[in-house]
Each structure stands twice: as structure tokens, then as C-alpha cells.
Automatic annotation (TrEMBL):
It comes from the Bacteria. It comes from Schaedlerella arabinosiphila. Residues 68-83 have a biased composition (Basic and acidic residues). This is Sugar phosphate isomerase/epimerase. Transmembrane segments: none annotated. Residues 87-99 have a biased composition (Polar residues). InterPro entries: SAM-dependent_MTases_sf, Xyl_isomerase-like_sf. Residues 61-99, 251-302 are annotated as: Disordered.
Length: 525
């Protein structure tokens, strides 16, 4: 299982050296880069609108991402409050500056170069890339061609830097209800040609939609629907690939790799009928910088499906989704999980377990881990804690990063718990309380322990859930291929005790995310 870390909130996009150094020192070696660092949803929403800097900009400099806000409307001179809010605080700035200049593929790739160079110099790898997304309440369907152009450039960038995964959210703005499948089918099939060439897996994401300010379930927010989309897209991509190999001699068509796929098929299995007047039009790519990044010697992808899915836990939390059911519905189609805590009323990216109420997490981590275990998930975890990191002082941020790494490692360990049990020829438990009983209920039949042991002499010789309780000294007679699993919340004390006894193969067991639970508890001895 791979773990990737988002640098958003940690790394300054203009001066990335310090943040990337902090990540490297904390052991966060694998980067999941969100291009929204260079063109945010706010920037996209205001694309093409006159902008004014909201903080001072040195004379002669171009405002960068986050510097700008919409210019005051000249059609409402009576609105003094609005005029004051949008007044230009910098007398040297040019009121005609537009956010458009930072959201073109050329500009993003140019601004991205310092970060990529720092990653190379510090031995960090970028294996996961994410395309910018519009805010959920955006109605700007006119930006769909721009989003497609950005996605094409991102695919070529992935090919250049060796990035395997690119998350591309479905188009939703300005699309008539009932035509989402037709519009996005054509969109993704156009991207598929380039993805095959550069050997990139395109990951769809679950979405919200805004209705009168309330966030509801959006496109691909149902696991069965998402699975159907993935299957149909992969089937169509494979069919087009077979036709291409059958009809066209093998030669380099890299200059035409981005040509839009023609859609002449009428799929009976399509979930909705309808046509879009604008989103099916091919996006024109005028990105000379992005084209320069392309590698002409890349080969079409044929070894694995082009499309898979990335589950965003923050979006699922906002929509109140059952993540266990979602993961089970996707099965092996699930290739990425974005781990972020999120309050139920507002979208944000918090470090897991930090959004809590009355000592309980607001995110359904139980459902997520159960679902990922059920499908034997062994692919990519992406930790996104941008808001938590940004809220910390730069002086404290280096101390936060090791905790973030530990949180990600904890998820990996929980998901792979059954794989850990399979690792040993035999196992023994340490602890004869509720956790031991939970183990026996969930795993006792499939992975039966030889016995359990406990530090309480009064219960030696008894049984719990049919398991004999022995003194700790019995562990010294075990073979080297036996694993000792601590089933007690005093993990570190017991681990120290076992190490002093010379015991090896010490593992932890945890019953917080079991397939089922006992609803009664035995008294502590």
C-alpha cells in the first residue's frame, strides 16, 4: 500500500524549498500534488473577470494565486459598502490584472517548475496528481473547455515526471440534469487517448452539489453508479483501443494524441439520455509549454484499465454517505482514498481525528476501514490536511508533520490488520479481557490463537471464549515463527515487559474497527 501526502498548506507554492524540506525531514517522501495550489477553485470561479489585488503587490509584479478578488461592479455606484470592500488597497497595482493569467496550463506549468525541481533535489516523488475543481456552487459551464485543456496538460505532465495517477473530477457546472453521463462520457473518452499514451490512470472522484447553499450528493456519490461509470468507460476505451490497433499501423501519432474521440455510439446501458450543447465540444489546447513537456517515445497503455476511482472521505462526510457500502460497491475499481477530516457543515481538509464532538470523530472511520478491509484494499492512501497545516504557525508546522505521518501509517496498519495475522504460522494473544473476547468473536475461527496470557495470576488456568489463559513465562517456549499480539490498551507497558523477557515478533492488535462488536463488557479483573 502506498501513502502520499498533500503539500497544500505546508508548502508555499512560490517558495517551496522550506516546506518540502520539512516534509522530507519528517519522512513524507511521496507527494500527492493538487494543482489547485496554483489555480484554486476560487480562481477558476473568477476566471475571465476583472480582478483587483486584495493585498499589496510590489510595483511591476503580476498578482499571483490568492492575491486577487473580483473588481467592484461599475453598474452599481450606489452600493458604497460593496465599493469599499473591493477598493484597491495598492496604489501601484493595475486594476486590469486578471486571474485568467494564472489558470492557463502554460502559467500553471511554469509556476509549478520550482516545486518539481525542489522535489527532484530532495529525493521526493510525485506519484499522484489532482486537477483543479470548480466550487460546488459554480454555474460556470463556460469553463468546461478550460478544465479539459488543463486535464490534457496534466496528463502530459504525468507522463514527463512518471506520475501514475491523475484525479479528474466529473464535469458538473452548466450541465443539464439527466445528461451528466453523456457529457462526462465524451469528456473522459477524449482524455483516455492521452492517458493511454502516457500510461496514466485517470481517477474519478465522488462529488457534492450545492442546492440553495446546502451540500447534497452529486455526481458519482453513489458507489453502484460510480462502479457502472468506471466499467462502461473502461469497456469503451478498450474497444476503441482494439479498433485502433486493428485499423492503424503502428507509428507515432503523438501530435494527434489529444484529438477528441468521436462519439457515434448509442449506449443502451447509459444511465441517462440527453445531449449537451457545449461540454461535448473538444477543448482547444494552445499550451506550448505543456506540449514541450510531452515525451514522444511514450507508448499506449494496454496493461491495465485506464479508469479507476478515488474516494474522497471529506466529500463523503459532507454528504452523509456510508463509506463501507461505497467501498464494497467499487471493489477493485477503488485505487485511491483521500483521507481528510471534515466538519459536517463546511468543506475543509483537516488532519484525521481532529474533527471531533463529545469525544467522538465526526468522520465515519469505522465504516471506511471496514469497507477497505472487505475489498482487500492495497493501493493508494492520500493524506490531505491542508487546513490543519495552514492554521499552524510555520514554527510549529515541522512538529505537526510527524503526527500526520503516524496518522497515515495507522490507517495503513488498520486496513492491513488481517494481512498481519496471516503473516505468522501461529499466534498467541497477550491479554484476557474485552479486546481478547472481541478478537475471538471476529477472528478466532479464521486465525485461532494457541492460547492467551495475562499478568493477573488469579486467572491463570481459566479460559476466555474457549481460550486458555497462561502466565507470560509461557511465551518463552514458543517457536520463532509465532507472533505475539498484544490485546490490551496498555500497549507500551506490555511491549516493554516482553522485550525485557527477550520475546520477539511482538505485534499490536486493536478492536476499534472490528467487523462486529460485543454489546456487553466483562468486568476488569
Amino acid at each position: 500500500m502506498n501513502i502520499f501526502y498533500s503539500p497544500t498548506g505546508i508548502v508555499d507554492s512560490r517558495h517551496p524549498a522550506q516546506g518540502l524540506t520539512d516534509m522530507s525531514h519528517a519522512g513524507l517522501k511521496h507527494i500527492a500534488l493538487d494543482l489547485a495550489m496554483y489555480c484554486s477553485g476560487h480562481d477558476l470561479k473568477n476566471y475571465g473577470k476583472p480582478m483587483q489585488p486584495c493585498r499589496p503587490v510590489p510595483h511591476g509584479n503580476t498578482p499571483q494565486c490568492g492575491d486577487c478578488r473580483p473588481e467592484a461592479s461599475k453598474e452599481a455606484p450606489d452600493n458604497d459598502t460593496a465599493a469599499k470592500k473591493t477598493a484597491n488597497p495598492n496604489p501601484y497595482s493595475d486594476a486590469s490584472d486578471r486571474v485568467s493569467s494564472i489558470c492557463t496550463p502554460d502559467a500553471m506549468l511554469k509556476n509549478l517548475q520550482p516545486l518539481l525541481e525542489q522535489c527532484r533535489s530532495q529525493g521526493l516523488s510525485v506519484q499522484f496528481l489532482r486537477v483543479p475543481r470548480l466550487p460546488w456552487d459554480s454555474k460556470r459551464g463556460d469553463l468546461n473547455p478550460l478544465l479539459e485543456e488543463i486535464a490534457h496538460s496534466a496528463i502530459r505532465l504525468c507522463g514527463k515526471i512518471g506520475c501514475r495517477y491523475l484525479a479528474v473530477s466529473p464535469l458538473f457546472a452548466g450541465i443539464q440534469k439527466g445528461t451528466e453521463w453523456q457529457v462526462n462520457r465524451a469528456y473522459y473518452l477524449r482524455l483516455a487517448k492521452a492517458a493511454r499514451k502516457y500510461r496514466v490512470t485517470l481517477l474519478l472522484e465522488n462529488q457534492c452539489r450545492s442546492h440553495n447553499g446546502h451540500l447534497l450528493r452529486g455526481i458519482c456519490s453513489d458507489g453502484a453508479e460510480a462502479a457502472a461509470w468506471i466499467d462502461m468507460l473502461n469497456a469503451e476505451t478498450a474497444r476503441q483501443g482494439n479498433l485502433l490497433h486493428a485499423e492503424i499501423p503502428a507509428q507515432d501519432h503523438s501530435s494527434h494524441a489529444e484529438a477528441p474521440a468521436q462519439d457515434h455510439s448509442s449506449h443502451a446501458e447509459a444511465p441517462a439520455q440527453g445531449h449537451s450543447s457545449h461540454a461535448e465540444a473538444p477543448a482547444q489546447d494552445h499550451s506550448s509549454c505543456a506540449e514541450a513537456l510531452a515525451q514522444d517515445h511514450s507508448q499506449p497503455r494496454s496493461d491495465s484499465p485506464v479508469f479507476a476511482f478515488c474516494l474522497d472521505t471529506g466529500t463523503s462526510t459532507l454528504c452523509g454517505q456510508d463509506m463501507q457500502e461505497f467501498a464494497v460497491s467499487l471493489g477493485r475499481r477503488l485505487k485511491g482514498v483521500i483521507l481528510r477530516d471534515c466538519g459536517r457543515g463546511q468543506e475543509c481538509s483537516l488532519l484525521p481525528f481532529t474533527a471531533a464532538y463529545q469525544r467522538q470523530p465526526r468522520t465515519d472511520w469505522l465504516g471506511l476501514i471496514r469497507g477497505l478491509r472487505a475489498v482487500d484494499f492495497d493501493d493508494n492512501l492520500i493524506l490531505d490536511f491542508a487546513d490543519t497545516a495552514a492554521a499552524f504557525s510555520p514554527l510549529l508546522r515541522p512538529q505537526l508533520l510527524p503526527l500526520a505521518r503516524s496518522a497515515a501509517d495507522y490507517f495503513k496498519w488498520q486496513i492491513e490488520l488481517e494481512s498481519l495475522l496471516k503473516k505468522y504460522d501461529s499466534i498467541v494473544l497477550f491479554g484476557a479481557g474485552n479486546m481478547c473476547r472481541n478478537y475471538m468473536k471476529c477472528y478466532g475461527e479464521q486465525y485461532p490463537p494457541l492460547f492467551t496470557c495475562d499478568n493477573n495470576p488469579s486467572i491463570w488456568g481459566r479460559t476466555i471464549s474457549g481460550l486458555e489463559i497462561k502466565p507470560p513465562e509461557a511465551l518463552k517456549d514458543l517457536p520463532g515463527s509465532c507472533g505475539i499480539f498484544i490485546c490490551n490498551i496498555y500497549y507500551r507497558e506490555i511491549e516493554k515487559q516482553l522485550l525485557e523477557m527477550g520475546i520477539k515478533n511482538i505485534e499490536f492488535f486493536n478492536d476499534e474497527y472490528m467487523p462486529s462488536f460485543h454489546f456487553d463488557r466483562i468486568e476488569t479483573y
